[in-house]
Amino acid sequence: MSDRSGACFSATIHFLQILQSCCLHTVRDWSSEHLRDTLRYGVQFQIAIERLTPGELKALQHFIEGLQPRFMHLNLKGLTSAGLDSSLAFLVKLLCRNPYLSKIHRDLIFEFCLDKEMEIPHFEEVPDEALSISPATLSAIECRLFIEHLVILQSTESKHFELFLDSCFDLDARYVFGLIIRVLEQLSSHETSDGFVTTRLIGWMREAISNDNVARVSFSVQDPLRLRDLALSVPKFADVILMLFDPVKHLQPVGNVPTPSDLSFLVRCLIRGNHFFDNLPRLISNLGKVRHTRSSFWTAVSSRIQEELQFS
What we know:
312 residues, 2 domains, 70% helix, 0% strand, elongated
């Protein structure tokens, strides 16, 4: 692969990641500068596309369509069929469909389109009745839709089930672990077909936590009481929790997340609700005794657990 091709493919993947982020609820947390940077990158990407030869453009279209399993939140055929030379308009269109855009963001996009002499976008309207739906109801709806999609993916023999979860993890690791926990809670009461979806979800979690510390951190900060209760109703889930305390691939806090206090609270919840976790204090004490960069963290966790158990 030439340097030119490699740079082109790398820039394209970054552009697809940006497109995917434009579809998410997290746009409501974007600063105005972040939105401007996103639009600027769209301009730069389209300029680069316009410099490609017809042969290079065709190769890039095939490359993008082959990435569909990695970007399941996007319709990549929609991008390529519209023409890559319209990639900036495609980005703006995705943004304008996002109901989480603030008025400030909408005004900024409107001004951007005027400056670039682009077609004025049509922003997605949010029905008034949708604003009155309670968070609990929205959460239940989200879980059911997520489960339905997983059931469809589970019925295939391909790796699309795991690839879809990988793409969700790349977008927002902490959120997707919280969503999976809510899904497992529902499935533990209603699932049929021998628990195939639950089995694959737990298998994916085990793989992620085994190989990625971001996954460990994201999992460790979930609601301790929900983790405890789910471990009781789904015994295999307890094994996933124990992976945080693996002697080799254990949790390593990032930026003081989680804190020793947070983790000690999780451990106390677990050992008080399930005898399966009785050995956790010993495992954590051993982690503090081993010489590694995080031994002081585990020593602090162990001390807190001992103190709190002593006075409980």
